[in-house]
Design brief:
Blueprint: H1 2-8, H2 13-30, H3 37-49, H4 55-75, H5 79-97, H6 107-118, H7 123-151, H8 153-158, H9 161-180, H10 184-207, H11 216-220, H12 223-240, H13 248-267, H14 274-286, H15 292-317, H16 329-335, H17 342-363, H18 371-379, H19 384-411, H20 415-431, H21 435-453, H22 459-480, H23 486-512, H24 520-547, H25 554-559, H26 563-586, H27 594-615, H28 636-657
Amino acid sequence: MLQFIRTHCLRSVAPTIECLLLFFLNLWLFGMNNASIALFMTLSFMQMQNDEFRESNMIKTTAIYLGLTVMAYLALLHVAACIVINFFVPFAIIYLFLNEFNPANQLPYELCFILFQMVPVQGGRELGFRLLSILMSAAITYVLLVLYSRIFRKRIKKSSILNLTKEGIASVSQQLYAVARNDTAAVQEEKRKLFEINKKMSEYIYGNDENIFLKQQDGQSYFPFIVVFQHINQSVDSFLHAKHPLTEEDKEYLVHLAGLFRRAGEEINKQVSSELLTELITFSSEHELSDAEWDYSFIYIINYFTTALSDLNTLKMHPSRKFRYKTRIFSRLRENFTLRSSKMRFALRLSISVCPCLVFAYVTTLPHAYWLPLSVFVLTMPYYENSLQKSFDRIIGTLLGIIISAILYYLFPGYWEQCIIFILATFFIYATRRYAFTAIYITCSSLSMSIMMESVEYLFLYRIVYTLIAAVIVILASRFLFPTKSTQEIRNMMIKLVEIDQSLLKELENAAKGLQKERLDRDWILTSYLTSEKIEARYRSKDIVLMKGKKLKQQESDFLPFIHDFLRNNNYLITNLTHIYTLIALQPKDRVKIEALEPLLKEFHQVLQCVKEKLLQNKEITEPSPIQIREIYDNAYINSKMSHSAQEITNLYQVVSSSR
């Protein structure tokens, strides 16, 4: 019971305080029309409270709210403006701000845009007061976030990027110790742990804000550790599957290296000592493993790790320094400007669905007409399955909420009694995570607010009618209007991974000719890891559907099982290719055998193209010829890595071919 209270109630205290404070303060200073600011500002508070708080996020969010407030005002000036603005603004909210890790992160912006059309202002003076109200609410939210981060700094620190990095380094150390002891079970356990840490780090860097990785503090300084952890997991595999056992010297090497990693993990909270950095460099040059490939691989890992620690030291000495990095914002926008993009399809579907509802609410005289577009906004999700489930939950939750609200209104019809009901319902909105229950409390909260503002005549009837109509609109739109199903989106993202592989092959050829790009390894691995994480998220979602007993089409059912094998092989491939790219880019170009490299990369590309065609379900493709391994460099290690890449590409084709 105590655990239930702690899990489901204590976490709602902070957002409830934020919401009620803003609601009643705005009600007192700026009137009921501006009290609804508390609803979307609290959602922003909740999104930021679990992260290491950044002032830039608060400034950006406030600026967006101010812009949406002005657009909502302009949309109510004329029916033509209503049509145009209410089509393009919802589209822009999704296309520009949707975080593909968290499809609900744009909800505060949607609420802001709709709520300010539900409760319009008249004239520039009232608009000015509304903008002032937003600035005041943002300032209060900022103060509360600062206080929250200080009061709960230990809990926040637990999930920080620095702490995840420390945990990853400790896991690496434990893996190396376990390999030296021949403890296979411990190695596998640490590999799984490190894989999860890598996923959390990727989500931390890219999940909350797609552009965070462009900032040195959160992305560029911690990203190298993700690369190190990925290489360690692959390198340890080579020990587990080695044809010959480790020598005593190999075990001593691993134990010594594990100790260095352990010390780095202990020192990373402050400043990694120059003595440790020097010892890492000395170790990589004076010690070696019995297998040349192992040795080359660990030299690369140790040097990469040492550089990452050094860069992190520089960051701590100069925390305000910005990393100069050419952003890919416009290229990412262009990348999604296609109907194959789930973001584009979702943005179009939402705009086409909600625009007529907003126009209807504008021209009609029906009370509470804006409940219809608001419900459409909330229920529309990127994928058909999610929209369907959420619509059913909303209907059930609304019906139960109306019954509860009607009973409470019969028993407690007074203003202050309804005010208490509003406060309690608000608390439970943030205490639950299951949407059906959330819908109950949202209904109770919304109805109690409406009762405080005006007459209750037909209020409950309007609520259920608008909810039912919105659910029908959302289900039909998700089914027939640019539909996106989970399995098809998984295929599209897997195709994107193959296209990343093909692009890297081209850049590998350019590097051999001296035309390499700066920091390409981060760019490509970033995109690859991000996409892999999104596939994992969609796969886990589909597993839930399967466990609920819902049937899939036969081709979808056959498609699901090979996803893990595909991701594992592709992650190995992208890591190998970027490793080779880095090595070739640093070496004299006359050491590369271009006459051998070009046909080999061409064969790689042809097999990957067949993989892509298989994913596109093109049945009329010819089987690719086997890859002919060639020596492309005067270095056995690089040639071995190319051979491994060829094997991973072949494995990718076999994995995809095994599915129907």
